[in-house]
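User: Predict the complex.
Assistant: Input components as received:
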Amino acid sequence: MIPSDTVLTEEGIGPAHKGRILLIACGALAREIVDLKEANGWTHLDLTCLPAKYHLWPDKITEAVTESVEKHRDSYDDIFVVYADCGTGGLLEQRCRELGVEMIPGPHCYSFFEGNNTFAAREEFTAFYLTDFLVRQFDAFVWKPMGLDRHPELRDMYFGNYEKLVYQAQTEDPALDAKAEDCAKRLGLAYERRFTGYGDLKTELAKL
Amino acid sequence: MADEEDIILSELDDEELVLQMHDDLYDGLKEEIEEGVRILLDRGWAPYDVLTKALVAGMTIVGADFRDGILFVPEVLLAANAMKAGMAILKPLLAETGAPKVGKMVIGTVKGDIHDIGKNLVGMMMEGAGFEVVDIGINNPVENYISALEREDADILGMSALLTTTMPYMKVVIDTMKEKGMREDFIVLVGGAPLNEEFGKAIGADAYCRDAAVAVQTAKDFMSRKHNKLAAG
């Protein structure tokens, strides 16, 4: 049972204490990881998620991951961190090395969902990305924290240099597609839907 | 009892008006800031005093509360817009009245990076502190930085990046400056959300600046050291 997006955003989820490897992940990836676990029968993987809202405050991620690793490491054979760099400026990678745990490679989830190599080759720096989770939570993660609900006049200060919104779809869902297109309209950007599936997330978890 | 809506700026004395302008800047009230600037100028204030005592001092409070987590990016942007409006009135007057020039800075975001909010804030605060700022915009390859530094005879290079993937490009710029034998001619300041002091040192910058206020103070410190060095030399 996956908790609501609100719980994933604000609180995260604790582990089920089943499985020998613990995944410490961003709450924004919970649904995707649970889907992959179920689809592939990965019963050896347990999952705990930190609040997805750290996406907005990347400076909190490194310490939160560290606390979680220290809290759980004695209960599992191994721990795998399902965060990319995610705006920590290399600090999370350095800390994971110090803690002796592996993490998913790449700059952020937009990159590993598409596949890090493919994403890097695009050099698409005027695109603003949304994933399934972020489309569902657009208001909580984009519109409100940027103050656009109160001050729509700020929109072009944030997005004036962007050209398009790319919705990286993990699943086939026409309702999310429509919502993503509306998000693009609200931001004044062109819209592109790109089906990525789970990309490197699946590849990396399959190695565990 | 009078509420905030009843305040008539022109009826306040200078001290009250300046404090009210700090509040209005904090609240991002662009029109009130424009009005306050005009009133002070009409009362014979020097443009430089309006800039520093009303606008920069007010924006410094905004910056401190942003650093302390009391204000967030949207509020800072609104305040910056209000300050920008006030500065637009003052700028031509500052040029006429010969306000002190502290130094000259070339600033831009690095190749592959289009995020310019931080750069714009730094540029504005640097101007407020008396620096001449040459903004070369977004997505700058190394050639843009080098040519701007040479063309403008600048003292300071400011580079900004928001992405982990683009911040390493700062090193490309600094290394190119070294290759051309021009690194020591400039103070190099770097900033942006994913950066930290360690990164700044590792790439050979003079300093990492965590926000606009720190950038201004760091630039001032380096300029005064430069002047002392020249005086001693």
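The longest strand of chain B covers residues 103-109.
Let me know if you want any component modeled separately.
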